[in-house]
Each structure stands twice: as C-alpha cells, then as structure tokens.
Design goal:
Layout (H helix, E strand, L loop, with lengths): L9 H11 L10 E4 L6 E2 L10 E2 L8 E4 L5
Antiparallel strand pairs: 1-4, 2-3
Length: 71
C-alpha cells in the first residue's frame, strides 16, 4: 500500500489535519483514525453525513492513534 511507504511524519501530519477538521475529534486528546485506500470506501445516499463503510470488510484497515494536538 502506498501510504505504508510515506516519509516519516507525513502520515502523522495528515492525521493531525483530519483531527483538526473534525468537530468531535478536535475536542478530544486520544482518538483513533482509521484509514484505507479510497477504492475501499463505501458511501451510500442513506448514510449519515461523515459516515462511511468499507467494501472489503475482511481487510483490516490500519489505525493511527493521535494522542494530542500538535499545532
């Protein structure tokens, strides 16, 4: 997977951006961010705003723990 080969710090920076752009996540110190390839994301019109699913449920997507905000 491409994101496994990212330079050190790039994935952490991306996770901080995701956390900062989340209303609920920005208020918390310890959150888990699940990431996967875009082709594995499943979005249906009946889903809530911000809710997504995965096409391949058997593939465990990587999780990054973001401990605190680093501004």
């Amino acid at each position: 997977w491409v994101y496994m080969r990212l330079r050190t710090g790039v994935l952490e920076d991306c996770c901080q951006l995701v956390k900062a752009n989340s209303i609920q996540g920005n208020k918390k110190d310890n959150i888990d961010i699940v990431y996967t390839m875009w082709a594995n994301l499943k979005k249906r019109p009946t889903m809530e705003v911000g809710e997504v699913g995965f096409h391949k449920q058997n593939v465990r997507p990587p999780v990054v723990r973001v401990l605190a905000r680093s501004s």
